[in-house]
Amino acid sequence: MTRPPAGLVAPPLARLVGYALLAAVGSLQWVRYVQGASTARAVAWVVAGTVTGALVLAAARLRPARPRASAIALVLAPLAGLLLAAAASGLDLRFLEPRHWDELGNGLARGAEALNTVRLPYLGREPWVLTTVQLAGAAICWAAAVLAAWPRRGAARIAALVLLLVLVAAPVVSLGAPAGDGVFLGLGLAVLTAAFLWLERLSRRPGLGLAVLAAVALLAAVPLGAAANREQPWFDYKAFSERLGGGVPVSYKWDHDYGPIDWPRDGIELFRVRSAEPHYWKAETLNYFDGREWTSSARAPAGGDKPVDDLPRGGNPHPEWDARFSVALRRLKTSEVIGAGTVLGVTDSTLPVQEASVPGQWTTSGLKDLSKGDSYTVRAHIPRPTAEQLAAATVGRDPRRAGSLLIHVGFRPGAAVDSAALVPSHPGIAPVRLDGGDIRFAPYETGRKPVARYPQIAADGSGTEALRSSYYDRTWALSQRLRARSTSPYGYLLRVNAYLRGPGFAYTEVPPPSGAEPPLESFLLDTKRGYCQQFSGAMVLLLRMGGIPARVAAGFSPGGLRSASDEWVVRDTDAHSWVEAWFDGLGWVTFDPTPPQTPARSQIAAINLPAPGGRATSRSAPPAFPAGRRPAGPQRAPLGGPAQARPSGGPSVWLLAGLGALLALLLTAVALAIRARRRHGAWESGTAEAALAELERALRRSGRAAPAGMTLSQLERRLGISGDGYLRALRAARYRPGAPEPSREQRAAFRRELATGLGWRGKLLGYWALPPLPPGPPARPRTLRSREPR
Asked: Element (H or E) spanning 553, and its range?
């Protein structure tokens, strides 16, 4: 029988090699979607895909001999490969348990939604965005490996190639080619594509075939390299979506309501900011708590009406914290000037603007609102203190901040709400039923008790008693517990933040109803689920109760940087609210207690600060912004790093057991595939030589090495073992064409005889010396003679 010409590379190996090389190029491109991603992640995807392809190939080799086993293995192999791909992507495997599928689906949907609104390469810390990007890359590698190794190679091979080209092209299309690498990328892509399609068809003496392959690769590399070697992406999806930005203007009402989010969340671009650094873009300050929610009512004293009244006493002690940036509106319609921190001045505005009644805010001076096409330049003061400065600062030396230590509360039904009980210092006042009062808290360092003011009777009373009778009695008790463990205003602030990051608190855009309790009381002590309004509103409430002047700021998170125009693009998904707390000598410092799962925080860096009660240190996390665009100090997110990307706890025992069972079944499939390959009745000469080499190796490993030149007959007599005819069958197969190979039983018997007298160690040596599955053809034996004497 004539054997077909041997290829340069065996077909199964050629398929795996072609896949691995092309997948490696694609994976290295795909990880560019995440700023600073490790290439080790890309390597892990390729390894997982290659293992998957090998398992599918092994399962396919069972087909002629064991069709049923092959069908089962072809189902199990991709499943096992999918588990490997998930692990290689960094996904917590516990999400693969059925009880966590809903959480996984919601998380991936949230990550995919956020990808429509953030800049790429992604430079944020939002865990589900990272998971979505990395899982997508691993899944493409896995699917391409399954298709490349699938038994029916026609359409499957083309589909695999398409997926691998998507893996390479998608990042180049949306990000552009790496600087200076366009030509090399095009050349490599062309060569590897040709190798993926035709490598297994090349003969050992390729001649003209190799020349044609090289010519095709070079011809394809020229246009590919020219197209890839561009500074800008082939297709800028952000710019495309921005050109479609016409439509009804979007406006906002910034007062809190704590219901489900009902403002636009469609990824619409609202405005752009040309700024050297990212900031929180503030629209309005909410300084009054009406007993239920935070509003911009003028009932709370603002501490002045000029921009300088929003700065520390004596002017601006830190001019290095001043910033200048330009704002251009697209779809946003607003009467408030979008700024940051304390706006000191607005110039070059297309509409007349003026200082608002709240210091540091500006509004339009006419009846017309700012809208699409309007622009202006802002000069703002944005404090960026270090952790040491915050730890050393006081909060009660500026009397202008008294209005930021005030809240209004209502009384619970049935509580002691008559004036005689709450205002015992005024016995001459006729008893009046009170429905609530204004509570003014003393600055943290004074240690004084709060005072209640009752406008109904124009009298003051005990703030502590009023709080105990109010709807916020439990919140007041919580603030006192947190304060008892704090030694400074900043330490108390960190305690509050740690509580909001503690067990039970979670981000959701559809918070549960609060029932009879006010929304923030219920959020803090009962439901613990909400979005930025709940987190920021609750933190300001606790800060004021603890004696730290604080207020809610509403507006937008930084958005995404569009490097082509050097602008921060802010969309409707970036609408956000956060906290501003006052520190003497520093000013209003920005803090954000909202968990990082919100898309509005997807581009915010993190600063790790000291634990409550510990010594303040300033340890910045690695910058999450491009070179030269470091986060603007602790104001970015000075409350500690973002929540852990994945919940703690590993996969369950049954999941690990299932994965082990799948791998065991696939190893069995591999063994059966190798057996099927060697099922023929007659051995060819090359295979018999391999068997002799294996015998030599087995004797050496078991400590029974044979002298050079010894024949099989002499070896059998010397060793005194037969293995139930293993050596005789081996000799017959070597010299009699058509003789059967040694059976599995003979091989096992010979292994047992090799281990005789060596105990348990001998059994291990036996399997190492003569494993159940013979290896492929090694080098020609050196010590056993290739011919028996006549």
From this structure: strand 550-556
Q: How far apart are CA 233 and CA 564, in angstroms?
A: 10
Single-letter amino acid, residue 65:
A
Structure letter (DSSP) for residue 34: B
Give the global pTM.
0.54
C-alpha 346/C-alpha 324 separation (Å) is 10
Which token pair is 281?
């873009």
8 A C-beta contact, residue 522 and residue 422: no
Of 355, 342, 357, nearest in space to 311 by CA: 342
Sign, CA dihedral 362-364-370-374, equals negative
CA distance 691 to 293: 84
Across 479-521, the runs of DSSP E, i.e. the strands, are 506-507
pLDDT of 388 higher than 90: yes
For 255, residues 6+ apart whose C-beta sits below 8 A from its C-beta are: 286, 293, 294, 295, 296
Q: Of the given ranges (115-124, 283-292, 339-348), which has the lowest mean pLDDT?
A: 115-124
User: Do residues 292 and 560 lie in contact, with contact meaning Cβ atoms separated by under 8 Å?
Assistant: no
Q: Is the dihedral of CA 105, 110, 111, 115 positive or negative?
A: positive
Token duo for residue 390: 């915050």
Best-predicted range by mean pLDDT (184-188, 390-394, 763-767): 390-394
Task: Return the structure tokens found at 428.
Answer: 């001459």
Burial class (CB in 10 A: 0-12, 13-18, 19+), 281: buried
Rounded CA separation 567/559 (Å): 10
Closest CA to 560 of 597, 604, 613: 604
Write out the E strands in 315-400.
322-329, 342-347, 353-355, 362-364, 375-381
Cα 281-392-612 angle, rounded to 5 deg: 80
CA distance 490 to 614: 11
Task: For the chain, report the end-to-end CA distance as a whole number of angstroms.
Answer: 28
Nearest Cα residue to 307 out of 268, 341, 257, 258? 341
| 346, 352, 357, 361 alpha-carbon torsion, rounded to 10° | -30
Note whether 76 and 629 are within 8 A (CB): no
Identity at 297, one-letter amino acid code: S
Distance in angstroms (rounded) separating the CA atoms of residues 121 and 551: 34
Helix (H) or strand (E) holding 284: strand 281-286
DSSP 418-470: BHHHH-TT-TTSPP-B--EEEEEPPPGGG-PPPEEEETTTTEEEEHHHHHHHB
Alpha-carbon span 175 to 231, nearest angstrom = 9
pLDDT digits 0-9 by tens, 540-550: 999 999 999 99
> DSSP secondary-structure letter at 30?
H
- Give the C-alpha separation, 43 to 746, whole Å: 43
- Looking at residue 635, the DSSP 8-state letter turns out to be G
Within 8 A by CB and 6+ apart from 48, the residues are 81, 84, 85, 87, 88, 138, 141, 142
pLDDT, tens only, 210-235 = 455 455 444 444 444 444 444 444 44
Distance of alpha carbon 121 from alpha carbon 561, whole angstroms? 10
